[in-house]
Amino acid sequence: MTEEDRNAITEIVAASEQRTVSTIATAMRAEIKASEQRNNATISAAEERTVSTIATTMQAEIKASEQRNNATIAAAEESTVSTIATTMQAEIKASEQRNNATISAAEERIVSTIATTMRAEIKASEERAQEFARTIETSLLTAFHGYAKGQTARLHTAESTAHDFAVRLAAIEERLLNLETRRQ
Description:
This protein is an all-alpha fold. It has one domain. It has helices at about 5-75, 80-184. α1 (about 5-75) packs antiparallel against α2 (about 80-184). The longest helix is centred in the C-terminal third of the chain and has 103 residues, at about 80-184.
């Protein structure tokens, strides 16, 4: 094998490696972009559900609070003015405390749900990326192994041929030496 052949093979391998790396990079970028889009869609949907849930809960709590306040006011109209003021203050404070407790619990559930969902999506995305990289790595190693087998076979053939020529040349030189020694 000549130096030019070796250089040509080296250039072919380098070009192949560059195409492979480029392909891997493009595929990884596409996978990351798709993962980001899925994550953004998941986050948007979660935000919409959260806002809807909070709005519904707040409306129900406000309605319940209004109903309780209306009942309290109707009963308080029959009582004295001081009883009305005391009852209203107690009802408003209780309603505020219930509203605050409900809002706090809803916020904690929302944050927990969003965090859990995001962790799961990120982990799944990482696992897919790792599996994709392993598959590419296996494919590359298999391709390089096949290429090396062919090169080894060609090199072995060349070495065997060179050895055969060396044996034949030695035999010819020995005959020539025998002929020269006979003439003298």
